[in-house]
Amino acid sequence: MTTHHYSDLQVCVLAAGKGKRMRSNLPKVLHKVLGRAMIDHILHTVELLRPKGIAVVTGHASELVREHVGQPANLEWVIQDKQLGTGHAVKQCEKVIRDVRDVLIVCGDTPLLQVETLEKLVSEHRQSASDVTVLTANPANPFGYGRIVRDENGHVTSIVEEKDASDSERSITEVSSGIYCVRYEVLFALLHAIGNRNAQGEYYLPDIVPLALNAGQSVEAVMMNDADEMLGVNDRVHLAHVEDVMQKNIIQEWQRRGVTVEKPDTVRIEAGVSIGIDTVIQAGCYLIGSTTIGDGCRIGPNAVLVDAWLDDRVNVYAFSHIQGAAVGSNTQIGPYARLRPEARLDEGVHIGNFVEVKKSVVGTGSKINHLTYIGDASIGSDCNIGAGTITCNYDGANKFVTEIGDNVFVGSDTQLVAPVRVGDNATIGAGSTITRDVPTDGLTLSERSTQKHIKGWKRPQKDKR
Ligand code: UD1
Ligand code: CA
Q: How many CB atoms lie within 10 A of CB 143?
């Protein structure tokens, strides 16, 4: 992780493009990679440099992008009304940049980029006292990227876009990442000199390379160690590919930090998730959003956790779904259990198969093992809630609360018609419909229908026709 503080560096993030090739109503940079918008990935990475400022160029659906990001203190929004090209986009930042040594230009659509790579670019740019430094790569497939053209001495002379390239230029495998570090003093003069006579009629940022050389300035290229980092997302095929690459990286990172991930190719662990040591993630699990899992837990197979919070040593058995719920340590959940938002389980709780818990607190050591709905309830400690219990919390118009004390035994197939309270140590007989408060201790049960026996009764037979 970075220890630098680049107080003399300005970052420019280019994010104005519509992303036509995404075929979407959403601006490209708001598309998510492992649960986090591309713009958030790149902002998170450049923040690690602790630059003087970050300018984000938006244009297409800029309100949506701004609304999504909010207003960090060191971030300035720059509008590019018409998307006339990457060079034109950077030029719009002129008003918001001053008194820095270098400007680092990154694109909003390269979410795999790592801060170490940006540090390498800035430090080599400075060591070589270069005016313009471009970050390059040798990807497996250079198609679609700008190619790095070098002279016989190996010096970079220009960057040619795919659409403008000759056949021999297209055979060049070294490409531009679209990321540059440029000395502030030369940048804007170069940008003002860019023209748009090219295949796309756009003001290309890469054209600062020949312009700098003509002006007697120096141009350097820094090669990335891992070409995957510059993979740009231009369409949804790229999006899926970038997500695959990021997913492998994230899973390997958790494995290195002490998490066992079984059948990693079947598991989704989003970027905002965190997992403690000695936790086992089994096949087919989806860990989504801000899900946080403690140490020594076992999850799955095929469990789905969305914005869930689990303490240590929690067992989540197969096919359980937990969303927006908090789970105390040593708790057992599932198989086939569902915890919904604002479910809060204390320690050592058991939630069994086909049990749904919503907006309810369940106290330490309580067991709800089979086929039950608990909603808008509080349950004390050491209770046993029998199979088929239902808190009837909704009268069709309003929601009501059920309060159950400690050490309560609720017999199977009980309906608790809220609002209702059950006192400590109470026992409720099976099959009861509870409509009034239940006192502490003793047995409470609703009147049962009488049981009859009809002697000699015969089952109907199937007609033989
Ligand atoms: C660009 C580079 C190419 C490089 C590739 C790396 C240019 C002309 N081409 O191509 O050399 O190999 O990135 O991924 O620079 N944008 C704006 N305003 C505009 C146009 C674009 O803000 O007017 C933004 C886009 O939102 C995007 C970024 O700039 O985030 C790059 O634009 P894109 O159209 O994706 O360029 P590429 O064709 O990928
Ligand atoms: Ca791109």
A: 9
Cβ-Cβ contacts under 8 Å for 328 (sequence gap 6 or more): 311, 314, 345, 346, 347, 348, 349, 364
Pairing assessment for the beta strands 350-358 and 332-333 based on DSSP bridges: parallel
Q: How many Å lie between the centroid of ligand 2 and the Cα of residue 233? A: 6
* Percent of residues in the chain assigned helix, strand, coil, to nearest 5: 20, 30, 50
Mean pLDDT taken over the chain: 97
Ligand 1 pocket list (CB less than 6 A):
14-17, 57, 80, 83-86, 88-89, 107-109, 145-146, 159, 161, 175-178, 204-206, 232, 234
pLDDT in tens, 156-187: 999 999 999 999 999 999 999 999 999 999 99
Q: What is the per-residue pLDDT for 354?
A: 98
In one letter, which amino acid is 74?
Answer: N
151 and 199 Cβ atoms separated by less than 8 Å? no
Question: Would you say residue 71 has pLDDT above 70?
Answer: yes
Nearest to 42, CA basis, from 105, 106, 93: 106
And the tokens for 243?
């997500």
What separation in angstroms does the CA of 391 have from each of 401, 421, 449? Answer: 9, 11, 22
The 10s digit of each residue's pLDDT in 382-417 is: 999 999 999 999 999 999 999 999 999 999 999 999
Burial of 48 (0-12, 13-18, 19+ CB in 10 A): middle
Nearest CA among 320, 316, 342 for reference residue 329: 316
Q: Which atom of ligand 1 is nearest to the CA of 204?
A: 8
